Structure formats: structure tokens, C-alpha cells
Amino acid sequence: MTALSTEPARSVSAGTGPAGKRPAGKGPGSRAPRNTGPSHTTAPGTDGYTARHLTVLEGLDAVRKRPGMYIGSTDGRGLAQCLGEIFDNAVDEALAGACTQIEVMLHADGSAEVRDDGRGIPVDNEPKTGLPGVELIMTRLHAGGKFGGGSYTASGGLHGVGASVVNALSARLDVWVEKAGHEWAISFRRGVPGQFAGDGPDAAFTPGSGLRRGPKVARTATGTRIRFWPDRQIFIPGADWTFGWLAQQARQTAYLVPGLAIRIADERLAPEGAGGPADESAEAGEGQPGRSATFRFDGGISEFCAHLSAGEPVTDVLRITGSGAFTETVPVLDEAGHLTPTEVERQLDVDVAMRWDTGYDTVLRSFVNVIATSNGGTHVTGFERAIVRTLNDQLKAARLLKAGDDPVTKEDVLEGLTAVVSVRLPEPQFEGQTKEVLGTPAASKIVAQVVSTELASFLEGRVRGSKQQARAVLDKVISAARTRIAAREHRENQRRKSALASSALPAKLVDCRSADDRSELFIVEGDSALGTAKNARNSEFQALLPIRGKILNVQKASLADMLKNAECAAIIQVLGAGSGTAFDLDSARYQRVIFMADADVDGAHIRTLLLTLFHRYMRPMVEAGRVFAAVPPLHRIELTNPRKGQQRYIYTYSDAELRRTLLELERKGQRFAEPPQRYKGLGEMDAHQLAETTMDPRYRVLRRIRIEDTRAAEGIFDLLMGSEVGPRRDFIAAGATELDPSRIDT
């Protein structure tokens, strides 16, 4: 999936609605109603709000009424959450040591299916409700085997709502369980148990509780198979699963559960619709029917860490494991059925794999019971605190940090670090059903203790063969700290200059008079184009900043080198909002930034370098949709006999458009000067032409540059603009057959 895309920019104007009217009876001269008696004698409901307006949502009705509370959204991300809930239940069986194989199928009819060879959902009747276990789990919120009953020591599910939520949001859901020598089956329609008369969600349905006993199976055979059809009354049109996302989930789970084999398959024939989570798997074969893949990794998260690390290694993969005990107070049902606060002893297992490389980016993935916590939590806080404290201690011991020096920060330590942080514990506390943040307080302290002890042993050289690597890590971290301090000093110097003199802005900046919402900064290639642009611009709100040729490729340069580069520093200084983590979008001096370069290969390269600078150091501008690329014409056709109301000049923006336009003019019998003019650069246009085609908001075409997926965007910038030559060469070679030679500007 493309991480960066362009879209035409549109002007938006705001208006005001009609003024509110004075309520009847409240105007001047109107009388206040007379109080006719005590307030307690007033008839109930005289304000129109009575008990009949109250609604009680029974069973799974609340899920269908507010699905976003349970799955986050009703687009492709919500669909992914539904499939993830069923998949996670199968993984929990693997964590319990009862499952070795999982299969996930995306069927051609829009349904999804998950199979596992675990213990199988219970089919006997639950004593309190009298319902079969599988029916209870699929129809009641907060029902399951993960509330401390001893079935699972660690699991991703803990609220008991995952399967029942998926059931409520499915037009049809079928469950097959192999257990006790038989295959048992049950079906549901929008959470209601019953039986379908045929295949698919549109078949006739008869409501009714109870399991159906199927054919005999081997007494030792166990497992669960769940297939569901998402309810299109709930999910938005076009919402679908993507095979690349599924491959990513399966791969990372296989890393986290060594020995578990996960097979995924896609039987859909049509390319997938938009709306799902972004793909990260280049080998997933997006858009091809009959795709499948199998993942199994016996090396666990050590292999995962090596897979995620893209740079040249500074250290081997360092594996840190340990555990710690803690107590927490939880409500427990007593014999009388009352919830009683009880102190429970817990154990938390820590498993961390980490490696530093020569790059500058940080890759940190965190998991709780194999559930990805994309927004971190207490376990990540403990990990980061431990490595910062430990490295500061080791730098002082090695005399790389002297008395009075600033300590290294989290940003210094994480530079170039790839880490996988995984913890396992019973009944973790998550923030919300989507489980993106771990909230268990004890995790921070235990993770910090384990990581501090093991990392100190590595850095002190107590691990065989670690002395040289440990020194390389210390050197890298202290270098990052010095670069950060130099950048800070640079910013302070710039601020000091701005405070002392009003001429802090670069002399080559051609500023505009207004600073309102119309203000635009054109970054112009070359002095010749600048001269024309000065006369073509509207000086009220259009500013110009010329750059000389191609700026520094900041993707493979350090922060210090970027700040030393005159062109990069000028752009940051003119925009006036800082850079990196200190960038303040609200402080930007211009509402829009527009790259204006020639319509040739060199111009495309300059735009790419500028975009790399903005993505790396001024990303909020891109995320806010305030960065654009101008679209100058490539050709000009001069009509020798323009007809009434017809412009003398016609501009085209590609060779294909030129050919179509010339054929159309010949068909209409209109003459034109030959050959049509081909612009070699912006400087060949006069001011009127440049304004008419590229700068005047009434006629120009802009392409807004936006980020659809942050992680995928970082990957493509690192691939195409980073320091690793091999992957880029492979990318070019692999895509050579897809290139249209006619599009190469020679």
C-alpha cells in the first residue's frame, strides 16, 4: 500500500448560519408564568422527559447500538479487530500449551474463518444458566474461561466480550467444535442462536437455542472452527480485510509463540477494497487471488528483532528474560455470590530482545500475552526507564560522562535501537477492549528490574564476547547525546539572534505582507525561476524562498549535518516552527508550503529531497495536509487562429496529454504553431504564464502530500532514501519490468 499519496487541493470557505430566534413568550413585555403551588405537587413529566424515554439494551443490543465502543470503528480497522478477537482466542490456546496449529481463511463470499487444534470450546451445559458453554460464550458479554478459573495462566482475552461482540456484529456466525468424540455445531444470526436452512447469511433462519451433534470424530480429536460473515448493516461500504495485514499479524504471532504454525489463505478473487489497516508485507502478494503463507519460528522474538532491524548491526541480538511476583487487589466472588476485595499473588514473565544498529530510527514493538500494545503502557515505561538509567551509570563508569555533563536522555538511548518487549501475566489491565495500552502498575517495576540487571551484565562485559559490542553501544549513545546538545545549542543561538536583530530571516527570502490563513511559502528551484516568480506572485500572501539545486538527503545524514546545511537550515528558519520533536505546528509562519520545481527528473528529485526533509524533521506539516507540490505545465500549444472565447495558449502536463490535445485540434481543423513549446524549466516562462499555470489560486493545480500510514511511510523513506544500498537496488530491479519507458524524461 502506498504510504504517501497526492490529492487535488480544494479551497474551503466558512460561513455563518442564521441568527437564533427568541423563544416564544420570552420577549420584552411577556409575563413570567405564575407559580400555582408547591413544587412537589407538579405533575411528573411536565417537561416532556419521562421514564418512557428510557431504553434498556438487553444482551448484545448494546454492541450493535454502539459498535465503536467495542471494536474502535466500523471501517476496515473494526473488521480487523473482529477477526483479531477470534484469532487471539486461538492463540490463547497455544499459550496454554494446547494448540500447535492455527489456520485463518478469507473466503470468496466475504466471510472469515479461524481454525485451531486446541481443546475446543466447552460443549457441556454451564450449571448456572443451563446453556451449552459455546452458546454462553458467544451470546453473553463477560462470559469465558479467562477470569481466573485456572483454564488460562496468561491470555490476550480478559474481558470475556471478544467472541460475543463478533457474534453480535455478524450477519451469520457458525461454530464447530470437535470434542468428546463428536463434532458439535451451532449457528447465530446477529447474536441470536438458531439454525439456517442453507449456506450464507441470507438463508432462511429459525431461532432456537441448543447445540447440534454432528458426526463422530476420534476421541482424541479436539479443536474449534469459527466462520463469520460481517453484518454490512454495521460496517461501512468498502470495509474489508487486507492480506498484508493478516500476514503481518500471523508473522508477529508466530515469532511470539515459538513452535506455533500459522497458515493464512485468501480465496477472494477480486482485489481488496480500501479501508483496512495498512500492509507491511511486501511478499504478501497484494491483489493476487489464491494467496497463502505459513509462518513458524522456533527462535522466538530473537528472530523477530533481527527481522525488524534494518541497519548494519552494532550488537548481536541481546535476549533478556526474567520474572517477578506482585500482589494486586481484585474483586473475587465468594460462596454467597458477593464480590469481595481479595489480594491475589501474580507472576509476570519478561522477555526482551534488543539490538542497536548504525541507523537513527527506533523500532519498538511491545506485547502483552502476544497482544500487540501499539501505544505501549507500563511495561514499555519500565523498559525505557531501565535502559536510560543503566546506560547513564555505565557511561559514568567508563568516564564518557564527566561530572557536570548532562545525562543522556531516552532519545539518545533509543537512537538506532530495535527492541521487542513481551510480558506475560494473568488478567492484565488494559485500557479499553482494543487493548492498545497496558495499565498494570506492577509491570513497570518488574520490567525495569529485569532489564537493568541483564543489560548491566552485558555492558560491563560479564557476558562472553560482549566487551567490544558494549563499548560500541556506549560510543553510539554518547555520540547521539552530543549531537542533540549541539542541536540544542544551535536552536538557542538562532533564538538569540532572532531576539537581537530583526534580520534573522535569510536575506534571500522574498516575504509576503500578510500572515493570515491565505499565506503560502513557495520553495523555488533556482534563481532564474525566482526572478519570474517575483513578478508572477501575489505579494499580499505569497512568499518565495529559493534553493540552490538539490538539498542534503537528510534520511542518511545526522541531525548535526542537517543543521550545518545552509538550504535545510534556511527552510527550517523561514518556517519558524522548529524541527524534530520540538516542532510546533501552531508557530508556523505560513499556512501552506508549496514545492515549485521543474517538471523533469531533476525537479522530481528535488521534490523528493524536500519531502524527505519535511517528513523527517517537520512531519506535523505533512500530517496536517499543509504541504503541496505545484504542478507546472510541460508544454505550451499556441493556436494561430483561436476562435471566439478560446484562449490562444493551451497548456498540457504530460506527453500523453499533449498527443491527445494535438489530435483533438487536428480533428477540429484548428491550426497551431509547430512544434509545441516544451518547457525545460520554470525560468522559461514569463511571469504571466507562470502565474496563470502554477501560482494563481484561481487556475493552478496543486497536489496535497499526505501520510496514510506512518509506519509504512517510514519504511519507504528508509528504503528509497536511506543509507542501505542493497535493498534499494533490489527494489529497483524488482520494479524494472513495471516501468513505462515512455515516462522517462530524456
Short summary:
The protein is an alpha+beta fold. The chain has 20 helices and 24 strands.
Notable traits:
six-stranded mixed beta sheet, globular, 24 strands, single chain, 20 helices, alpha+beta, ten-stranded mixed beta sheet, 746 residues, 32% helix
Notes on the protein architecture:
32% of the residues lie in helices and 21% in strands. The chain contains 20 helices and 24 strands. Strands 2, 3, 4, 5, 6, 7, 8, 9, 10 and 11 form a 10-stranded mixed beta sheet that branches. Strands 1-24-20-19-17-18 form a 6-stranded mixed beta sheet. Strands 12-13-16-14-15 form a 5-stranded mixed beta sheet. It starts with a strand and ends in an 11-residue tail after the last helix.
Oligomer: single chain
**Poorly predicted spans:** 1-42, 145-152, 155-160, 272-287, 499-503
Mean pLDDT reading: 83
Q: What's the end-to-end separation, in Å?
A: 29 Å
Query: Describe the biggest sheet?
Result: 10 strands, mixed
- Determine the structural class based on helices, strands and strand pairing: alpha+beta
Chart the SSEs and their pairings.
Elements (H helix, E strand, L loop, with lengths): L3 E5 L52 H5 L2 H4 L4 H20 L5 E6 L5 E5 L16 H7 L22 H7 L1 E10 L2 E8 L2 E5 L8 E3 L4 E5 L6 E8 L12 H14 L4 E6 L24 E5 L5 H8 L9 E16 L5 E18 L6 E6 L2 E2 L5 H20 L12 H5 L2 E8 L17 H18 L7 H34 L19 E6 L1 H10 L5 E6 L11 H6 L1 H10 L16 E5 L4 H17 L1 H5 L3 E4 L4 E4 L10 E4 L2 H14 L8 E2 L8 H9 L6 E6 L2 H12 L3 H11 L11
Parallel strand pairs: 2-10, 14-16, 17-18, 17-19, 19-20
Antiparallel strand pairs: 1-24, 2-3, 3-9, 4-5, 4-9, 5-6, 5-8, 6-7, 10-11, 12-13, 13-16, 14-15, 20-24, 21-22, 21-23
Helix pairs in contact: 3-5, 8-10, 12-18
